[in-house]
């Protein structure tokens, strides 16, 4: 007698024979969802649609508007593009195709070989992609011994993947096939090509962009409005990594295995220090600058950067003074609330903009000003006799979420402000086809710092992260191109350094909570890295802001 299992989706309960693919179940429920179901979450565990039913379970349908669904879509469209590229050009003509980084809801990709990368070629590749979509070809998962996988990727000249897998202790490896094309991806994929319908290829700078759907309207492509300053910062960082011969996780692991970790740490720190010194020189050369305005998304290392910049400014003969814009919060009773009735501390309306401008304008005129301090326990500003008068070589180093927004400093002359956008823009990838989102780097930093300084669990940090990201989208990212300088705070070795700190925190996330899939994804990601001890990380390093042991109060 055939065994039957009960499947619960929301309030609905249905029965299916054992061995029913989740795709068949998803198709039954698809009419209730406005977007394609790409994955299912079974009792808190993500599953691909090709997996078969083997128990009574509760399923949550995952679409492209869910973070795991968007990740699956992105991996799958990369796989589709690679297959089409190899079909059109021929494997013997391709030296390397590398998915470098995200740029304005698109992926920047470089392609090298004995072919000309032009618009006509991209039209042919995109046409081939659409042919594969119409055919609804299955994307199939396979499991083989790790040694066999290494040999297979070496034979196919995908040496980055072979080298990556050589440091894996798992006995088996999953890989995917699309007809005769195979590749390795970390994370889940859609079940067939018909789910990957929205994309476009365009030439851009030294490569091409693969445009992706708009998360808000998945049936449309997101507008491509790149920040050229951020792109240049990413390109410069990539060049610095290339100078250290590290472009992916396998290269970093190899350096650690060969005992070269200390040189990598010190070399990258030296590069960063030179960059900060160059910024200080630029400021010193602009005689009218009195206000250095620093802003960036969460966990970018703004506090440590401000201290290091101040040190370099002193070396240039300037006298820096730190100003925290948090001291200009409105008193708690006057703070606006969001749509959920919670205090909206990230809104510009939560700041006493006029008092800030009054104080800064008086300082600019040479007057003595008593600066406020915000008492977060009482929820109000206090004045405790902290006065400041600007001399001819004095500058203010001002850090805060709204520092790039001219509405916040509207009364200050443009020539008196030097604006710096800081973000953790990692260019290190798992391998050529598996990029590392820059948001992952910041989230891992935040998890460790929250646990160390605030006693928050990893679950709590993951839970609040979407709210943090929404605040960044509204208050920081729109103003990044107004910056005079974009500073990249990513360190090439930081994931290996964070691994021993973060893993125990992530393992402590309960399996029955909504944050578990994200914790599991991050654990899988960290498993690719060999750990790195903290012994030779300088006390001035930006990483000390997150792991402790630094010489600055951060």
List keywords for this structure.
Rossmann fold, alpha/beta, Threonyl-tRNA Synthetase, Chain A, domain 2, 554 residues, Ubiquitin-like (UB roll), 3 domains, globular, five-stranded parallel beta sheet
Task: Offer a concise description of the structure.
The chain is built from 15 helices and 21 strands. It has 554 residues and is of the alpha/beta class. The strands form six sheets. Strands 2-1-5-3-4 form a five-stranded mixed sheet.
Derived from helix and strand composition plus strand pairing, the structural class reads alpha/beta
For CATH, the homologous superfamily of the largest domain is named as P-loop containing nucleotide triphosphate hydrolases
Apparent shape: globular
Number of helices: 15
Number of strands: 21
CATH class of the largest domain equals Alpha Beta
Major sheet attributes: 5 strands, mixed
What would your notes on this structure say?
The chain has 554 residues and is of the alpha/beta class. It has 15 helices and 21 strands. It has a 5-stranded mixed β-sheet with strand order 2-1-5-3-4. A 5-stranded parallel β-sheet has the order 14-19-13-20-21. A 4-stranded antiparallel β-sheet has the order 6-7-12-11, with helices on one face. A hairpin with a 3-residue loop joins strand 6 and strand 7. Helix 5 (159-165) crosses helix 7. The longest helix is centred in the middle third of the chain and has 25 residues, at 261-285. The radius of gyration is 26 Å and the shape is globular. The model has no long low-confidence stretch (mean pLDDT 94).
